[in-house]
Amino acid sequence: MDLRKLQTFVAVADFGSFSRAAQAVNLTQSAVSQQMVDLEHQLHVALFDRSTRPPRMTRAGRAYVETARAILDSHALFVERYGRAQVSGTLTIGVVRSALSAGLPEALHALKVSHPRLSLRLVASGRLTTELTQEVRAGRLDAALVVGPPAADRDLLWKSYAVERFYVIAPPGTPGLTDGEVLSSAPYLRFVPILPGEREIDSVLAKKGLTLVPEMELDTFEAIVLMAGAGLGAGIVPALYVPRARLQDMRVLPFGDHTLTRELGILTRRPEKKGDLIDLLHKTLTRVRRAKSDE
Fold it and tell me: Where does the HTH lysR-type domain lie (predicted)?
């Protein structure tokens, strides 16, 4: 079994299309398509219905996703356990605030336990994704954990390790059965978008025919959770913040459809001078995030 094809298959499942999966695994769309054909031939199973555009996973394909994840996770655990003596070096990593609470502490602990000779220097600050991108480009950081996906750049490589949907959160008792009804029933807490993916929130609201006058305009999702928790209105946040909202008994509903997402990933330079270490960090983050989402 070719693990690269399994990684590509899981990426298609996570991102919902061959084109977005191609960006995540750093392949062309035609290469992704060919890998999926090869995998189907190897399994003697149709994983995709190609009568639709874009192709959709068949029932068998959806069932195989968890098998593929289990194989990849088992392989990663084996490498961590028996390859620890071979891993050494130093990685200097910049981190945006969102990534700090997105499974990073657990991933760093797992790496330190499995690879004691690996040194991870973390540079956490209030800087934005755009600022850390420039630090990576200039060589002052080996990599950055940021929110994306970024615009295509021939000098930079993007490796996504988590895909998140957006959710409406509102104080307990806010009326409404749908996301639009709940947003219309409470003062609107608007997130001021910075990245292209975040700007899609306003586009989806417009497509729904919702004209919401913001009661507050806030520049962090943490602030939206705090204000909604204080009963001051309803807002839209990524899945990362949903557990915090549920702890406060807030109403939580999916916003839009599954195509509205944001990604957390590792940004590094091409060519990767420390590719093996960055790949190890990426695999560990992916496994930890997957485990947290299954809890």
Answer: 1-58
